[in-house]
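Researcher: I'd like a candidate sequence for this fold, 332 residues long. If you have to choose between options at a position, lean toward the conservative one.
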């Protein structure tokens, strides 16, 4: 739930989904479908810029009450809307600053809650309330704004499926929200193809299969997003190519490099000789301890057992190296 309220009753009026949807249709009957441009998003780098932006969206939602804004580094997207003591307030995530597409979608969703709260059009089911807030963003003409901020973008968003959930859409997943947006655009006799010009590349497939005409100048936020995604794709391809080449070279080096070289054989022989000397020294020490230590003491038994195990370990390592040396020598 993205809101809190002290409203508990509405003059004994229980609002149904259909009634609220009809109310939304009537309230926004004159609204056009907003196609966001570079000027619409602006920079949104400071708190003041984001507050001013939210106030512009507030006009679109026809909210008459004043709204106070605050920012928190701890709150998650889309933020929180509060309507207590007849006062509206929005708490926005701090990381919205510098993320204009996500910030615009998050503010739009919160303001949809604010509108429904201030007009007391709240459904008794909280999940249904989230659904109606999502629909309110579409009825207000801000559906394209909402869908643009529903995924952070880049190559990963291209891979995501339509059933992916979004932090700035309350109830629907991305595919469900897009389907309702398409129907709304179609019902308003608006060109779906034109809507794709104002939609970020990784979400265009959810709006329309039509591709922008090459001569059509796309908004900078769309073309820049496309370039970033292509750079990300090229980076992944380049990295994968380098890894594949390195693996091939490694395999080729293993296949064609001489396995039995004089250097390797000398190293094996030297290691085996050192282990043999260590084993002989261990046996001598073990035999000497057997002669010197009293056989009836527990400490003597433990020390002799330790030395015996150490000698056995050295013997096994020596035998393994000797077998490896003889095997390679035989294959020359």
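Model: Candidate sequence:
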């Amino acid at each position: 739930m993205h809101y809190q309220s002290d409203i508990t009753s509405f003059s004994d009026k229980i609002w149904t989904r259909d009634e609220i949807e009809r109310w939304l249709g009537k309230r926004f009957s004159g609204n056009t479908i907003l196609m966001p441009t570079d000027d619409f998003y602006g920079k949104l780098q400071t708190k003041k810029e984001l507050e001013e932006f939210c106030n512009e969206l507030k006009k679109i939602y026809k909210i008459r009450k004043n709204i106070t804004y605050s920012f928190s580094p701890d709150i998650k997207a889309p933020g929180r809307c509060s309507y207590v003591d007849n006062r509206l307030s929005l708490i926005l995530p701090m990381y919205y600053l510098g993320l204009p597409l996500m910030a615009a979608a998050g503010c739009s969703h919160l303001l949809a809650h604010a509108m429904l709260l201030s007009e007391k059009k709240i459904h008794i089911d909280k999940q249904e309330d989230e659904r109606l807030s999502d629909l309110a963003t579409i009825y207000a003409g801000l559906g394209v704004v909402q869908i643009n901020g529903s995924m952070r973008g880049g190559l990963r968003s291209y891979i995501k499926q339509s059933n992916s959930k979004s932090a700035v859409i309350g109830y629907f997943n991305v595919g469900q929200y897009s389907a309702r947006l398409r129907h709304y655009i179609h019902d308003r006799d608006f060109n779906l193809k034109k809507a794709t010009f104002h939609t970020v590349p990784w979400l265009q497939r959810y709006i329309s299969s039509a591709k922008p005409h090459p001569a059509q100048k796309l908004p900078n936020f769309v073309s820049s997003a496309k370039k970033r995604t292509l750079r990300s794709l090229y980076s992944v391809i380049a990295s994968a190519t380098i890894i594949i080449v390195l693996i091939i070279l490694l395999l080729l080096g293993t296949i064609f490099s001489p396995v039995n070289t004089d250097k390797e054989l000398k190293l094996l022989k030297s290691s085996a000789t050192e282990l043999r000397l260590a084993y002989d020294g261990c046996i001598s020490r073990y035999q000497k301890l057997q002669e010197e230590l009293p056989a009836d003491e527990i400490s003597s038994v433990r020390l002799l057992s330790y030395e015996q195990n150490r000698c056995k370990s050295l013997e096994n390592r020596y035998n393994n190296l000797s077998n490896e040396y003889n095997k390679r020598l035989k294959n020359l």
